[in-house]
Fold these 2 entries.
Entry 1:
Amino acid sequence: TDVEKINMDSQERKKQFGLFASIGTTRKQLSKTVFFEAFIIALIGIPIGVLSGILGIGVVIEIVNYLLPNIFDFLLTLSIYPLFIIFHTMKVLYILYQYLIGLPLIILVTLFTAVFTIVCFPWKNGKPPRAVQVFWSRSVLWFLLVPIKVTGAENVNPKQSYVFVANHQSALDVFAVYGWLPNNFKWMMKKELRKIPFVGTACAVAGHIFVDRSNPRAALQSVELVKKELVDGISTVIFPEGTRTKTGEMGRFKQGAFKIAMDLNLPVVPISLSGFHDAMPSGHFYVNPRARVHL
């Protein structure tokens, strides 16, 4: 009969599909249901798991570092810890980039520039060595991913000799001035830099003047040497503070730069450097990626 046929079909479905046979579910329908449920669980569960893990790490770090000195500050800091973790992860990656990629590139371009400058000794004030030196200076900041804003360069005449004076905030100052000042010039630099392999020799060949700050008589001789260089549009750049600032505040200026300007009747042009102390303070060996520098 029809009833017996239906019962036989029902028993056959139970053998094939188990308990789901009683509600008429096929294998295709079952797979769609399981896939949909698994997708929903993953969609909700994975973000919750990731956020829970980040917050858990944040809690551990906060407790270890600060030992709960203030519960309100702790809760406030905890609320932004996902961003905190992401920021510090990017900072670590940036520092690794500086040492593993940026620094080797800087060393290579420095060696090339030093050798090229030494080879071009007979044309030390010519355009080819100057162009390579400008490229070297700019590439250092490029490799370190330091964006720089330059204003006022159009106010100086590249064919005029000047005495440029600049505040000294960081080791990066040299690359900014060398790379973006349009005039050909000679540095007055401390004599300790003469000991740097290749770089010291290249600086001497290029006509830069080394100053012995511990010996007043030798310092005066250096001043006389730089005076001889300031002809035919050659300028000089001096950091009148004598050394980098430790606090970010401008130090007291020494008189040497202004004495040179008065003796040779040359205009003094001030250069303002800002943001460089934030980028790389004295005593630090990596660059702050958030700093913005301005010349």
Entry 2:
Amino acid sequence: GQAGRDIGIDQLVPTDRLPGTNEWVVFQSPITGGDQANLERPCVVAVEGGCEVRVNGVAAPVATLANPGDYVFLPQSSYDANGIMFITTNRKAYLFHNTNAAPAQNGLSLGIIPSLPCASSDRVEIPSAEYWADASNATQVSIVTRVGATLSVLSNGVAVAPSTHSVPGTTLWQAHKYSFTSGATTRLEVTSDQQFVVTVNGGQSNRGGTGTFTGFSRAPVIVSPFDSPTATVSYPVTLTLSETNGYATNGYQWYLNGSAIAGATGDTLVATVPGVYSVTGTSNTCGVSPQSADV
């Protein structure tokens, strides 16, 4: 870049943990100027050959990466007017994204951006979101949720209202932005009833940083029919579920002693015989959830 001279590093995810296809939403930094056009070009690196890279929903790929390790930088012009870009691949790939984090133009904030999750936890807490910025430079909080999801953002326990934006090229995801300037500790709490990703970036002087936060999907939770560990029940007994956030469930599968119970796909189950019961959630978009704890 114009003045950029620092290296950027991040921890790789094992290739066997990468999804076969990917969707990413990336955001421009709120810090403009300098050599931003070169500093903020997302880089897609193929893990599998024949990796087609598409941007903002356009059918024609902008590049086809023939071999593992091949890569392509995407131009700054691919961001929309709100500084948002939507990227997809049909094969396993990494996405590296550097933001123009520091006003001095030489504080890289390189990160590996995770593919949008099929399921996530329902809550992310960031205890010191202001860490990379200060009282003179803004910290940007960028959130991606499913369209129609219920989102809550608390800053030091007080509700804030991020702006909401469409994501170019998809009707499944939407973006939310919230910026703040503070030299004091800022604790962020983000919750949603569907899967989401939070990215925080900021900078000051010649240092910058970025972090992407999500979580792991929660298994369904069976409400125990036992009032106490030593209590007994009489059969039949109805098993119910508590609400499962971060995972849009379309159905369930119940198990008895580890074997699927035929036709037991509702959110309740009438248990007629003693045994060990468990359940998984199923989703049209996310497949099968983790399995619940045994009851």
